[in-house]
Amino acid sequence: MPIFKVIILAIVQGLAELLPVSSSAHVVVAEKLMGLDPSSPQMTLLLVMLHTGTMFAVIVYFWKQWMQAYFDTAEHFKKILGRVIVATLLTGVIGEAIIKVLEKTVFKATPHAEIEDLFSHLEIVAPALAAAGILILIAGIARRNSSHSALTSTPEVTMGQAGVIGAVQGLCLPFRGFSRSGATISAGMLAGAARARAEVFSFALAVVLTPPVVAREALRLKHAGAGAMSGSPVAMSLLGMVFAFLAGLVALKWLSQWLESGRWYLFGIYCLVASVVVFLLHQHGY
């Protein structure tokens, strides 16, 4: 694969992964427009490394905030850890349940089918983007019109709010286009969490979630054949990881500024427009 295509995908992944606009949808569209096969072993390896790069970007960007918010005392850390565990367990249970149901129904007649087989179907990505856009739009407008209401009154994420965020994250797992960060931050805001707390907690969950997701993709790659993990694909994937890391840092800074300025709802409008574009691309044969 040419280096410039790797760099383009890395920048798309890095920017979109950490913005509430669904990196999966953007990467799939970029791959199709460049004539790449999203399901090939080489592309799977590249995406694993791109996700790793954005995970490190999250850790670097939020480390100081996590230290101040979650590690100030041992008691506070235990409280937050409990909420992260509950949210992650709900994510796993709900996400895995949906995946199994889809594999047993949609793919009932297809041997050895996996949920990943849906990921390159733009006719599914488009409505997922629209659903995320509607949720973001509702949360953004509610916060904008109710600045003194319960939507901004809770100083930190409660156990109930953590459960809501984790459950919504589980809904995001099977569907590319249903933005994880957009859905979880919006759900937290609608549940009454302060905007900044919902953002920090959402990305803390992303760090916890990324290693098992990467491991799942690496296992699928191993089953696809050892040849995909040698030579040029590995070097290209490492290069992509670096660019995704740098793009991720830029995206996080932009995300925080937009949240602070009360323009969260604009991401919802973007997702709705993007869903129309993706649907039109599907209609034209992509």
From TrEMBL:
Q: How does it sit in the membrane?
A: Multi-pass membrane protein
Q: Which GO terms describe its biological process?
A: cell wall organization; peptidoglycan biosynthetic process; regulation of cell shape; response to antibiotic
EC top class named in words: hydrolase
User: Any idea what job this protein has?
Assistant: Catalyzes the dephosphorylation of undecaprenyl diphosphate (UPP). Confers resistance to bacitracin.
> Its principal location?
membrane
Annotated membrane-spanning segments are 41-63, 84-102, 122-142, 196-214, 234-252, 264-282
Supply the alphabetized keyword list: Antibiotic resistance, Cell membrane, Cell shape, Cell wall biogenesis/degradation, Hydrolase, Membrane, Peptidoglycan synthesis, Transmembrane, Transmembrane helix
Give the InterPro entries listed for this entry.
Answer: UppP (IPR003824)
Q: Record's superkingdom?
A: Bacteria
- Provide a Gene Ontology MF annotation, just one: undecaprenyl-diphosphatase activity
Write down what this protein is called: Undecaprenyl-diphosphatase
Task: List the GO terms this entry assigns under cellular component, sorted alphabetically.
Answer: plasma membrane
Keyword Cell membrane in annotation: yes
Q: Which family does it belong to?
A: Belongs to the UppP family.
For this protein, the Enzyme Commission number is 3.6.1.27
**What does the record give as the reaction this protein catalyses?**
di-trans,octa-cis-undecaprenyl diphosphate + H2O = di-trans,octa-cis-undecaprenyl phosphate + phosphate + H(+)
